[in-house]
Design brief:
EC 1.11.1.6; hydrogen peroxide; ten-stranded antiparallel β-sheet; 475 residues; alpha+beta; Catalase HpII,  Chain A, domain 1; 12 strands; two-stranded antiparallel ribbon
Length: 475
């Protein structure tokens, strides 16, 4: 077997785990292979997004109805606050011309134009993801895209990767369940998915999960229903969202959070920064925050949706990140993708422009349309001429990290209990839909990969494996 190397021929010792300070992160910038894989992925295709290429969007308003000031000082999250927002829904794997009603995770990206700068929350319609280490992400996306030789999508590649990386099983179970094809963007929940942090006026930190619950009710499609819709309308979700807003039937989502005190991350019995795992609602119940409503369609889709640039690096005082390794990588990867896809000064475009004044020394490069003013002698920092300067009062509280840098694998190899919990929550009809959907998707995959998948299903539940076997035999 050949030894994996970088593009410069350097041997790669570990391509499964990012380099972090301690087992739970954060990640280190010295991990060249991680940065190289993410940066290369962002430049693989022109001009559409590498992932989430097919999307729909609308503008609206976030309204905070409850007092959560004991958790955060962020002005956008104070009771009574109303904030203009943009949301972009999307499929993940398909190209810009893909059909809306395909079985896929749905993107749920939000931009809030706050008084303290833009706050972007980039999530999905699922509370988890396939992976917990970003060094695997470019390879995972390769399995969802086209085989570079045949230029065809490959279910075999998808199942090969999923069965070799069993941390994917929780998300795979959701994707193959009856939740895998939402009937519309209006009829699905949204999640921040990652663990973030909230910081209050006392400089106390809380870990947080963001949830958005649709008031329109959950509605999904079967494979047969989706196939019929695709045959008639490849833009079914775009049409539904646009028309509902045009006729005044404005969709609404309730905004809720889960909260964990900072110190509890060490004693809670699981890694709260693992993106493949949910937090128990029993231990960390949902807390009401407010709601958002979508009430305005874009006037120019290209300008306002296609050129919209989201990044979890856009945060405001009182909201922060966490040692979630996938989140840490996306802080780099998303703005890097925008610089390549849209252009150096993508933030100057109207849809991405904050409502507060921008004070920056980052003025060079293409697309500078004059928004960033440069006064005489005030073009570097620090300077002696009264240019904008840092304000250390906005520093976040210290975060404790472990002191050994290494390619850490996860101690937690329990890939099965949360998928088992999800499976046990399903009724007989939902389980049968899961079996049939997996059988449809995995049919024709080679026996080695098929048997590996059945082995994993058996570990989740014997009934899970039995149901898939029977569905395969019926084909």
């Amino acid at each position: 077997m050949a030894t994996l190397t970088t593009t410069s021929g350097n041997i790669i010792a570990d391509n499964q785990n990012s380099t972090s300070a301690g087992k739970n992160g954060p990640l280190l910038l010295q991990d060249y292979q991680l940065l190289e894989k993410l940066a290369h992925q962002n430049r693989e295709r022109i001009p559409e997004r590498t992932v989430h290429a097919k999307g729909s969007g609308a503008f609206g308003e976030l309204v905070i109805t409850e007092d959560i000031s004991k958790y955060t000082k962020a002005s956008v999250l104070q009771k009574g606050e109303k904030t203009k927002m943009l949301i972009r829904f999307s499929t993940v794997a398909g190209e810009a011309g893909a059909a809306d009603a395909e079985r896929d995770v749905r993107g749920f990206a939000m931009k809030f134009y706050t008084k303290e700068g833009n706050w972007d929350l980039v999530g999905n319609n699922t509370p988890i993801f396939f992976l917990r280490d970003p060094i695997k992400f470019p390879d995972f996306i390769h399995t969802q895209k086209r085989d570079p030789r045949t230029h065809l999508r490959s279910n075999e590649a998808a199942w090969d990767f999923w069965t070799l990386c069993p941390e994917t099983l929780h998300q795979v179970t959701i994707l193959m369940s009856d939740r895998g094809i939402p009937a519309s963007y209006r009829n699905m929940h949204g999640f921040g998915s990652h663990t973030y942090s909230l910081i209050n006026v006392k400089n106390e930190r809380f870990w947080v999960k963001f949830h958005f619950k649709t008031r329109q009710g959950i509605k999904n499609l079967t494979n047969e229903e989706a196939a019929k819709i695709i045959g008639q309308n490849r833009e079914s979700n775009q049409e539904d969202l646009y028309n509902s807003i045009e006729k005044g039937d404005f969709p609404i989502w309730d905004f809720k959070i889960q909260i964990m005190p900072e110190a509890e991350a060490k004693t809670c019995g699981f890694n709260p920064f693992d993106l493949t795992k949910v937090w128990s609602h029993k231990d960390y119940p949902l807390i009401d925050v407010g709601y958002f409503i979508l009430n305005k369609n874009p006037e120019n889709y290209f300008n306002e949706i296609e050129q919209a640039a989201f990044s979890p690096s856009n945060i405001v005082p009182g909201i922060g990140v966490s040692p979630d390794k996938m989140l840490q990588a996306r802080i780099f990867s998303y703005p890097d993708a925008q610089r390549y896809r849209v252009g150096t000064h993508y933030a100057q475009l109207e849809v991405n422009r904050p409502i507060n004044k921008v004070e920056t020394y980052t003025v060079g490069g293409t697309m500078n349309n004059g928004m960033y003013k440069v006064e005489s002698k005030k073009y570097y920092e620090p300077n002696s001429f009264g240019g904008p300067a840092e304000d250390r009062s906005y520093l976040e509280p210290d975060i404790e990290i472990e002191g050994v840098a290494q390619k850490f694998s996860y101690d937690d190899t329990d890939y099965y209990s949360q998928p088992r919990d999800l499976f046990n929550l399903m009724n007989d009809s939902q389980k049968q839909a899961l079996f049939n959907n997996i059988a449809d998707h995995i049919h024709g995959v080679n026996n080695e990969i098929l048997n590996r998948a059945l082995m994993h299903f058996e570990k989740i539940s014997p009934d899970y494996a039995k149901g898939v076997r029977e569905a395969l035999n019926a084909k």
